[in-house]
Design a protein that fits this description.
With 91 residues, the chain is of the alpha+beta class. Helices cover 60% and strands 12% of the residues. A hairpin with a 2-residue loop joins strand 1 and strand 2.
Length: 91
């Protein structure tokens, strides 16, 4: 249906007080639903943040406990970085 054909029908509906009342009721219902869904979403987000935070606190990365680097080969000689940060020639 084109806009020009729909306009007289819409105008007639807007003059009807029961139609206006129904549209207002639908708006209130929609707002209520959106508030309820928002609250539910926030509850899930907060619970997820708690779980994530707890998991992060339980597991400490080894890099924060030990200072170590892998064995690397440079110019056919093996160098190792010790826990004190000093290099050591193993070649």
């Amino acid at each position: 249906m084109s806009f020009t054909k729909a306009l007289p029908i819409i105008s007639a509906l807007l003059d009807d007080p029961t139609f206006k009342q129904e549209v207002k009721r639908m708006k209130v219902d929609q707002d209520t639903l959106e508030r309820r869904l928002w609250a539910k979403c926030e509850k899930v987000r907060v619970e997820h943040d708690k779980t994530t935070r707890t998991d992060k606190e339980m597991y400490v990365p080894l890099s924060s406990i030990f200072y170590c680097t892998p064995l690397v080969t440079l110019n056919s000689r093996d160098w190792v970085i010790r826990a004190d940060g000093q290099s050591e020639d193993n070649g």
